[in-house]
Design a protein that fits this description.
With 195 residues, the chain is an alpha/beta fold. It has helices at 12-24, 45-61, 80-86, 111-120, 140-149, 176-188; strands at residues 29-31, 35-36, 67-69, 73-75, 97-101, 124-128, 152-155, 167-169.
């Protein structure tokens, strides 16, 4: 929804139209999650936070009753945990929940250790776009181990939603309502109080 940061809204007019469409559907809070992908989308935490604040200011001025929170769809990189701790990478609403996008056509060789390290560091990784990952059928056992360790997933539904809208799904075997409620509560507490 943030204008001009990645493959989402191209400009402010599109952002405002997306916000109005969300409100018309009864949505009250949107996590703005531009891509962070070195070499293609050079977004970082401070710029994302500034863009969310600027768009929120504009929505308020236009009387569009939509609350924005920060986030990013972060592509896997070697310094992920230090990037989160430094604020260069952005979890959802500065909570423990973080969107992680792996490569679409090749399974990362250290897939499990990458996600287990995030969990061990206190984060709840949300694997984004599993429906696009061509390697998932061959790595089904690894995905099952990840979900048992607390990794969640999000997927874009095969229905017509506003551009860029995705639905959260949750851990296999976990209460979907409970996990969705925890993520919602984390977003409702944004902006965070001093750390």
């Amino acid at each position: 929804m943030l204008p001009g940061l990645d493959d989402g809204a191209s400009d402010l007019a599109v952002s405002l139209a997306m916000a109005k469409a969300a409100v018309a559907q009864g949505i009250e809070t949107v996590a703005c999650t531009p891509h962070i992908l070195p070499g293609l989308y050079h977004n970082e935490g401070p710029a994302i936070r500034q863009a969310v604040a600027a768009l929120q200011e504009r929505l308020d001025a236009e009387a569009i009753r939509l609350r924005l929170v920060t986030g990013a769809d972060v592509h896997m990189c070697p310094d992920f945990v230090p990037g989160l701790r430094s604020g260069r990478l952005v979890p959802l609403a500065d909570s423990r929940y973080v969107l992680v996008e792996p490569p679409h056509h090749t399974a990362p060789p250290q897939l499990e250790s990458f996600f287990f390290n995030l969990v061990a560091a206190g984060y709840v990784p949300i694997l984004t776009h599993p429906e696009r990952l061509s390697w998932v059928p061959q790595r089904h056992e690894a995905i099952t181990r990840l979900t048992r360790a607390g990794v969640c997933a999000s997927a874009c539904p095969p229905i017509r939603w506003p551009a860029g809208a995705c639905a959260l799904s949750v851990r296999i075997g976990a209460s979907r309502a409970a996990t969705a409620r925890r993520i919602w509560q984390a977003c409702r507490r944004w902006p965070p109080r001093t750390r």
